Amino acid sequence: MRPLHPPGPERSAEWRRRFGDEARAERPDLSALCLLVGAQADGELDEAGMDAAQIELDRLAGELPFRPGGPRSWATALAEHLGDRYGFRGTPGDYQRLDSSLLHEVLRRRRGLPILLSVVWMEVARRAGAPVYGVALPGHFVVGFGPPEQQVLVDPFDGGRVLTGPDAELLVAGATGAPLDPSMLSPADPLDVVLRILNNIRAWAAARPERSDVALWAVELSLLLPSHPARLRYDRAQLLVERGDFLTGALELDAYAEVVAAVDEPAADRVRRQARAARAMLN
After folding, report:
1. What is the rounded CA–CA span in Å between residue 278 and residue 283?
2. Using an 8 Å Cβ cutoff, are 2 and 206 in contact?
3. Rounded to two decimals, what is the model's pTM?
4. Strands (E), 20-104
5. Tens digit of pLDDT for each residue in 141-190?
């Protein structure tokens, strides 16, 4: 695996500015946001590299048959094109790789996590005119084609295999132990997709304490999304303290305590004590 080195401070700040602008756009571009996430992880990904990734998505879309038919025909066409012809799919080992969460690397390797492979499926299908969207099943992201009454689900991690109703129920039961709820089959908002990708990156970094730098930029990008859990501010503060930036971390903890105090004063007091402990480390 090629070692990934983050960009320098100036380039990183520029990518974050562009990420924030795109996230606040009237119609955020999912592929652009994913590539900007990749640019935070990989200092070798520049403007030309991001353009090349978009061109590759265009090329893959241009090779699809023209409007093959209904939802199942679209699903079959994508599976034959991306899964069979080009070999896009996932393996258990992909969960251990940071590049499995980076769109430009997934396009290069044709391997990745379910959600990134789903982004490839969605972006190629969308460019070709398909009625496509992401479906955020618990624990396993998939792709949907067509309206609810004709919905066809496919699993890009398995090469685009069409899922039956029982298949989807098994995926949900395996992840949660609970039955499939119809609400789980609704189209996923692009910004929710990006947040889930960033959460996956944070989970990867959490298992590798030496990569707290990755966890930090992932949480900071998450905070640029218009809607995000307030808890992320606390997570950022903790990461700052762990990385030795005690003063900034303490300030973040105090700010988070003010938010929490409105609903849970005892919890706010605990966070304030953590802020004092962080400042004490400066002595």
Report:
1. 10
2. no
3. 0.93
4. none
5. 999 999 988 999 999 999 999 998 888 888 888 878 888 888 889 999 99
Which tens digit of pLDDT belongs to each residue from 13-30? 999 999 999 999 999 999
| E strand or H helix at 145 | strand 140-145
* Residues composing the chain: 283
Q: Residue type at 95?
A: Y
pLDDT at residue 67 above 90?
A: no
CA distance 231 to 243: 19
DSSP at 208: -
Give me the numbers of helices (H) and strands (E) for the chain, helices first please.
12, 4
Q: Buried (b) or exposed (e) across 159-173, using 16+ Cβ within 10 A?
A: bbbbbeeeebeebbe
Distance CA 45, CA 155 (A): 28
Residue 184: is it exposed, middle or buried by C-beta count within 10 angstroms (0-12/13-18/19+)?
A: middle
Q: Which residue has the tokens 């989970």?
A: 203
- Structural tokens at position 58: 């265009």
